[in-house]
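Notebook entry, structure prediction.
Reason for the run: the old model in the group folder had no record of what sequence produced it. Starting over properly, with the input documented here first.
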Amino acid sequence: MSHVTIPMSSQKRVALIAHDHCKTELLEWARYNRNTLAQHELYATGTTGRLLGSELGVPITCFLSGPLGGDQQVGAGIVEGRIDFVIFFWDPLEPQPHDVDVKALLRIAVVHNVPIACNRATADFLLSSPLMHRDYERLLRNRCSSGREPDPWQPASSLGTSLELLSAELGH
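New structure, fully documented this time:
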């Protein structure tokens, strides 16, 4: 199986997300880790981003609120190579109006081999990793069996090429 590598610089692009019942926990965690987080480029969904920006006093690029498309924007950032790392404190016991978006975001993070922490312990381990502060090449599994390497940065305008690859995959 072949892979393509996706470079991640020592300054990671980190998305921070928290569901309503988890916002306090994420704020406490972020406050404790403020100095480390301040060394990276931070992104967050809606209310979480505004709360973190106010609490930490560091620049945070805000997406929409999760239920209004913010989780999808983070997923798109992963696919387009604009997000390297995700901290997502979510409540698996509380139904969300956008559960399908949450599942899609988790799936995209796994498919694109992006580190994702879904609880405080995992976030602590990931943030304290020596890899957090150095360049890293993330491996992306080549899911194309036609022998051609997929280009993870392929623009949407090359849809014809993508469809040709898909057609070759399906044997048409």
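Summary: Residues 99-111 form the longest helix (13 residues).
The old model has been moved to the deprecated folder.
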